[in-house]
Amino acid sequence: MDLAYQYSCLISLTVADLKLTWREKSAWLTTALFACAALLIYSFALDLASGVVVSLLPGVIWTVFLFAGIFSASQSFHADRENGVLDALRISPVHPTIVYLSKTISNFVQLAAIQIPVLLGATVLFNEDIFQINIIMIVLLGTLGYCSLTTLLSALSFGSKSTNLMLPVMALPLLVPLLIACVEATASALDETPDGAPWMMLLVLFAIWTTLISALMFPLAD
Amino acid sequence: MNLNTLYNLRWTVLPPVVGVAITVMAGLALVSAPTEVVEGDVQRLLYVHLPSALASYLSFGITAVCSALFLITRDFKWDAGAQAAALVGLIFTALTLITGALWGRPIWGVYWQWDPRITTTLILFLIFAAYLVARKSSELDNERVARFCSVYAIIGFLDVPLIHMSVRWWRTLHPQPIVSRLDPALPTEMLLVTLFSVAAVLLVAVWFIVLGVETELLSQRLLKIKGRVR
Question: pLDDT tens digit string along B71-98?
Answer without folding.
Answer: 999 899 999 999 999 999 999 999 999 9
